[in-house]
Amino acid sequence: MTGLMNPSSGCDTQGSALFACVSTAWQVHQGELRGYLRHRLADADAADDVLQDVFVKAMRQGQAFCTLINPRAWLFQVARNALVDRLRIAHPTESLADDGAELADPGETMAPIDALADCLTRVVGELASEDAALLRACDLQGQAQRDYAQAHGLSLPATKSRLLRARQRLRDRLTSDCQVRFDTDGRVCCHVPRFDPD
């Protein structure tokens, strides 16, 4: 292994001249790279294996390595990538069961505000058409208030005022129709889903 990582040990003179910049950069940064890898890997032999992979990749670059502005940065980037690859192999991911038995019930893990989506959609549809259009555009679809005002021939202050009143009416309807309750910080904590009679 040391013979492979010492570029001058087994190369002929033409090869040494061709990869002189690799050799120089390697001699300057090899110790620092080894320390970096040994710090992150508990096994010194594993660190040396990754270090050898980095050296081989640098040698494969050939003269392209000589054109690098910062060879140290390139060597460390390759070392980081090789380290990540090795850690991924060492810690494989677990596949999910085919029957879905291990999956949690979405109703149990869903945040209260997310569980409110059905009720919100229904209540917005029952608001006055102006309120519903304004809330859908600005709050649900993310349209800027300024753009909404220009598109509907309104001033920006009028749009802001209408949106504020529409939000208050929506909140009142959610509180009464869906029995939404808020915690001490003003966040939705729970609600009772409203089902339409069929």
Describe this structure as you would to a colleague:
It is a single chain. The N terminus is likely disordered. The chain is mostly helical and 198 residues long. It folds into two domains: 89 residues, Rna Polymerase Sigma Factor, Chain: A, CATH 1.10.1740; 85 residues, Winged helix-like DNA-binding domain superfamily/Winged helix DNA-binding domain (Arc Repressor Mutant, subunit A), CATH 1.10.10.10. Helix 3 crosses helix 6, helix 4 crosses helix 6 and helix 9 crosses helix 12. It has a two-stranded antiparallel ribbon with strand order 1-2. The protein is built from twelve helices and two strands, in the order ααααααααααααββ.
Total helices: the number is 12
Helix content: 55-70%
What's the order of the H and E elements?
HHHHHHHHHHHHEE
Class inferred from helices and paired strands: mainly alpha
User: Can you tell me the CATH topology of the largest domain?
Assistant: Rna Polymerase Sigma Factor, Chain: A
Low-confidence runs: 1-11
CATH architecture of the largest domain: Orthogonal Bundle
Q: Please, how many domains?
A: 2
The shape, in one word, is elongated
Query: Roughly how many Å apart are the termini?
Result: 76 Å
* Radius of gyration of CA atoms, rounded to a whole number: 32 Å
- Record field, number of beta strands: 2
| CATH class category label of the largest domain | Mainly Alpha
What's the story with the biggest beta sheet? 2 strands, antiparallel
Main β-sheet, spatial strand arrangement: 1-2
Mean pLDDT value: 78
Question: What fraction of the residues are assigned to beta strands by DSSP?
Answer: under 5%
